[in-house]
Amino acid sequence: MHELHKAIGDIFESQCAKAALKTCKVVKDPACGGEQNIPLFCSPKKSADVEYCDVDLLVQKGNKVKVIIEIEESNVTPIQLFGKLLASALSRCYVHDGAAPVMMDDSILFVQIVDTSKLKKERSSKVTQWINIERSIRRVLPIRSSGICCYRLLYGDAKEFTPDGEKGKTLVTCIQTFLHHDP
Fold it and tell me: Which of 5, 70, 94, 129 could bond to 31 as cystine, CB 3.0-4.6 Å?
């Protein structure tokens, strides 16, 4: 069960008709309610030896990847968070089946959403750690030879990430702001 993935997918389902996302294509993996995996490759020629990762959701604009979203429900360690970012940053395109490659844009927003439902909230230092991770990553952006220039780390559980909830609105606003200021 991927409750947080499903909640994020639902947010995009309800927001796709909104202004900033109206001109975009949203691709969701099965855990988010989509129908396909979303593999990223370091080469436009699709093959197993150049596949670096699968992401949970991406937003295409003008046939370029503009937003990548990774949702972490179980492994919320720093190495996992850093690793997902680096694998995406070193990728050059998204390729699905027989379709033409969708290249990474020169300017990409990478969003990581981390699940808090399994934390012992009263004793956890994870939230502070995640805030520090976000600060550290933002200090090294943009990553040379990568289109990833903006990074956000959001955290909460499936009950908090709803289309009309504060965390859902924060996610949508950060994407809309990025897309609006980066045509």
Answer: 5
Please give the backbone phi and psi of residue 6, each rounded to the nearest 5 degrees, phi first: -65, -40
- List pLDDT tens digits, range 140-164: 999 888 899 999 999 999 999 998 8
How many CB atoms are closer than 10 A to CB 171? Answer: 23
| Contact (Cβ atoms closer than 8 angstroms) between residue 36 and residue 50 | no
pLDDT of residue 93: 96
Mind listing the pLDDT tens digit for each residue in 92-104? Answer: 999 987 789 999 9
Question: What is the pTM assigned to this prediction?
Answer: 0.94
Distance CA 55, CA 31 (A): 11
Cβ within 8 Å of residue 3, ≥6 positions away: 73, 117, 157, 158
DSSP string, 111-144: EEEEE-TTS-TTT--HHHHHHHHHHHHHHHPSPT
Picking from 126, 155, 154, 151, the residue whose alpha carbon sits closest to that of residue 140 is 151
Distance (Å, whole) CA 124 – CA 135: 19
Look at residue 92 and give its three-state secondary structure. coil
